[in-house]
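S.,

Sequence below, as promised.
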Amino acid sequence: MREGKFFKTVIGGREVTVETGKYAEQANGHCIVRCGDTMVMTNVCMSDQPRPGMDFFPLSVDFEEKLYSIGKIPGSFKRREGRGSDKAILTSRLIDRPIRPLFPKGMFNDVTVVCTALSVEPDIPPEVWGMVGSSIALSISDIPFAGPTGAVVVGYVDGQYVINPDSEQREKSSMHVTVAGTNEAIMMVEAGANEVSEEIMLGGIMFAHEEIKKIVAFINEIVAAVGKPKREMELYHVPAEIDADVRAYADKMLDEALATHDRTERQNNQDEVEAKTIEHFAEKYPEKDREIKDALYYMTKEKVRAKILDHGERPDGRKPDEIREIWCEVGILPRVHGSAVFTRGQSQAMSTCTLGTIGDAQKLENLDEEDVRKRYMHQYNMPGYSTGEAKPLRAPGRREIGHGALAERALEPVIPGEEEFPYAIRTVSEIVSSNGSTSQASVCGSCLALMDAGVPIKAPVAGIAMGLIKDPEHQRVAILSDIQGLEDFLGDMDFKVAGTSKGITAIQMDIKIKGIDRQILTTALEQARKGRLFILGKMLDVIPGPRAELSKWAPKITVIKIDPDKIGKVIGKGGETINKIVEDTGVKIDIEEDGSVYIAYTDSEMGEKAKNIILSIVEDVVVGKVYEGPVVKILMSNPDRMGGRDRRPRRDGKPEKAREEKKEEPQQLGAFVNIAPGKDGMIHISKLSDKRVAKVTDVIDVGDVVRVEVIKVDEKGRIDLKLLEVLSKASAAE
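The prediction came back faster than expected:
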């Protein structure tokens, strides 16, 4: 049996082991990271040759959630894992973002990173160990990689920062921040928080970086022991001769093309310069269109960045901290529970809010020990027309899922609790025009839609995307507020910050260079705070707070509590009772295991009727109480028991002479009355009147509606009734 190599360290107060060299020997790099009973295996591979025609680095990262890791069989028809859950996709993005900038520029070989959760202890989530494992596997492989990186999660519990908090600490924590970085700088931040201050957030990020430095040192020890030599790569670059010729020919034309502040005009000018340049060099550099375009791209990047750093002039003419023109509107869709449009420059989000019962909450099958139910859902869609592209619609990709999750994280802290507002809530942001910061436009638009729907959110939330232009040679830095598409494309950072006037609720930071320091983070957070407050002011000018009443199209919900042991009575055999209530009243009913009953209705009278029916089912029948209900059955005597005894032995064992059976008609003994759904009581014939009654049907019959009084409830729950009044006759109704 092959022996592997083991390495140990302590991260966040827990022992962590890394094993490599025993399994997956054909992968370029392999390791299994274990913390407690949580184990994540990571394997990385690289193709031998670059992918033909590729103009971006083809890195593929997948986090595989295997339900065997928690002892579950998948609930799908095929009983196997299928498409990754949203959480798996978000984890894949977390792994991807800090490592992507650390591969060599001009490398177009396919690289795959596959992290598989083999075993999961509920107290120790596997996601961060997938991030650490990917760094280890890449660092010890022969794949060129400028790591290692480290990653941790930071919580804030009782005024103290906690590394990789356990489940109890996560419940108490006011923030959940995932941080990744190298020994020198921060590479990635993903955070959700309960309105924490910029100071607390910054402190948490820097606290995480100190632990990351220890992880990086540990990985370097592993690399020194088992790391492979890095493969020599032939990297793509623009040939120096082509680069020089293109610069000489197109320099002045490109300056003129970029002089306008109008995006469409600027793009048309750039396209014209590109066409002229390719035509000019068609004979000298045949079949070198890609190299010519790349040379123009690098020239454009240099010129745009120089304008910002040297003159403080952005492509659209704004100052570094200036925000684009904002306008908003609400209530634009008449039948929708809540709707809004948020516009900032050329970025525009049309958001809607839909309210449903708790039963509409999303149920998730993931690696948590218990099934998770998500009551607030945010979804983000960005069709091709938002950027003027003619392309077919597709299922939501990783970008859409990631942006939706970010907006959801930003708004979730202000969503009212279930006891205060017993609804499932879905917001959807349709990006109808895109030019940067659309994820944050969706935060603002959805917040407006929530308020338009009358959801009593705790505070309004706005979001802003910050950018960075850094000149490492001269140590010059420009931090940009509300970046547009070109600034994101040509810049060094995309730093999204959302929150209320009180504090931060969500952060997502991606770095394209090899990290940023504390000073840049401090400045960016403060500039983002000022921008956020400005945007909130614009939003509140349109709608100052949640509407006092829900839309007339939204369901109204009444919540009652019943004894959990009586849930079965409300549901009835095969759902018969509850289905009858729904059929008769038109309401929607959801029942929780704790006995909470949610009744959703648009007709108040029917909602009250359904509530009373349910209460009547579960309430104990009280002697002396008066009920009304229909007669459902006449109780007859059993004719089989009416005759004499036949051939029964005498005491002396001799057979008794059989008597001739008497043929007697069955007699009416009483009637059953339905006093509540699933609850019948009996009126004996003697309780129908003060006078003697020969036949029950002389007084009442099936279908009659009567008023009765409870005179007895025996130990088996059987109910005896006394007739007080016949309210209506079935024959009369017919």
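The CA atoms of residues 363 and 373 lie 5 Å apart.

Coffee later?
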